[in-house]
Amino acid sequence: MRNFSPVRSRRTFSLVICLVFFGALLYNDYMRKRPWLHIPRSNAYYNGVHTITRPGNPVLDRQGEARASPTDKPPTPRPYNPYPGRETSRTCYLDAEDTTPAPNIYAYDGVPEQMPTPVLGSYELLKIRDDVCFDRFGRYGPYGLGYGKALGGVGFEKETEDSSAEHVWAKTGLIDYRRINWADAQQRCYESNNRQAESIADESRTSTRIKSRTAVVVRSYEGFAWTPMFILNLRAMITELSLKTGGEYSLHLLMQVKDTKYPVWADSTLREAYLKKHVPSEFQGLVTLWSELQMKLLYPGDYSICFRNPTGEDVHGVYRSPHLPLQNFAKEHPEYDHFWNWEMDVRVLGSYYEMLDRLSKWADARSRELLWEHNERYYIPGYHKSWENFTSTVRKQEESQNQALLGPLNAPWRKKLSFEEEGESILPSDCLHQHGTCGVEEDADLITLNPIFDVRHSDWYFAQDVTGYDKALWEDLPRRAAIITVGRYSRRLLMAMHEEVWRYNHNMFAEMFPASIAFHHGFKAVYAPHPVYLNRAWGPASEIDKHFNRGERHSTSGRSGPFSLSTEHVHGISSWYYKSHFAEQLWRRWLGYADSKGGGGLEEESGDDGTGRMCLRSMLLHPIKHEHPSE
């Protein structure tokens, strides 16, 4: 047995004490920077359909935790119609025989007791209903959730609590999705409604034709796992955005080919074999293929001049430049005026149409005056109160700054684009004299779902991933970014981005390039403050504002802003951020599955003390990587 000397023992003891001491210091510093971790998680999200009531004052128990009062029988959901003014649209069908109309989703009037309200963004501001909620069967039952594959569904029957779920199939029956061709269904729908609109226009001289079409481009890749839940989600997107609008929207899959031996321009036989291997048959007609090699051919030139490339990835690669194939897609599809860039791990809990339509309408209605300054900040209703008070506050915060930008930057390093060389102005005509109304009802060229912050002097990891610009501009090149590339891009913005890359070999990291080109050339960019939830009942609102608008001039910009490596952890408790932990946890519980940390699942929802399956307001969730317990 080894003998330890008293001296060695004292040294060991001293070392342990030092480690404990410094560990305590580090832990205290960690918690000091994350005050929300002292606050218990909110369980009020998990109150079920048996507690649905009209929004009112919450009832709290002695510990301050929301307590629901279940009823014996939940209310009955109703078909949800977020399509006002479309009474003249021709009904669109899933099948070529016109026997199965596009189904409705279902919603409950009211929300469960003590349901939290969003901390960032606003339903009222965007005109999205907040007095209804959606359970999993009302949301996904019409698309195949809750019945087996032999009946045309996706399975998972009886895996979760399903009492009274049959209401959603009462009118349509169980729809068999096994032989649906979504590309054909979209095209038939658009053509049918377009012909009807032309006929109405001939008779009444008042055209009801769709004047502007939007593509929803979902980015996919070879090897993607087509889970039943994702299939449900894609069916929902096509139905709600395309078939229910008569073709106002059209969904496409922009799929990256990773196999370097497969030619993107292959003949139809090779293409058919490739798609059969990688994409479910119902979606194959929606696919546009692309590859990194193709992008190198479309965007040749010298891209060696770069401020910094922190990842070491190729500039033509999908990680740094997923906008390149989107730019080319827009070039190849002149029928669309706008393009929603969408990611596979985003979910809308509620109607896709209501969410995208209201975001678009709100953004288009914004004035350009102080728009970049508004874009830099989170709107926190609990702190700012009204939107009018928010804009007034921003005006005061910007009084000491230079005159706000309405149009393009005037800088010697800025290269002119073709439309600028031809003397075309990007600004609406009224902007010269009416700054307050400049841009009102002008279509937004860029809609982002997070604030658009000033990248310069920030600690954002990709701030220096800038290609093709003079390195002398390292610190001073104006650039903007919005975390998460999901957003709406106009044709003219994408064509400007295309020209910057193709003609000048300019490029930036994916989340920076669209907003920066908009900033340089005067395109209208808008951050739309959609509702974002936190998983803790954190307050007061001033404390939340202190962490989310913690940057320069009380914004998200600068070194201390919430998107730097040392500060972005605050988003981990939110329902919308690429590092969110809450989004997937909330989504899986809403789907009816137990949380790995406890809570939820069949027994809890259907037990004597249970309140039934969850029912939540419409919201955007990201990222959703795993949905079913088997994944």
From TrEMBL:
Alphabetic keyword roster: Membrane, Transmembrane, Transmembrane helix
Lineage top rank: taxon: Eukaryota
Transmembrane segments annotated in the record for this chain: 12-30
InterPro entries xref list: DUF3405
Annotated region (Disordered), positions in chain: 55-89
Pfam families assigned: DUF3405
Bias (Pro residues): 72-82
Protein name: Major facilitator superfamily transporter
Organism: Akanthomyces lecanii RCEF 1005
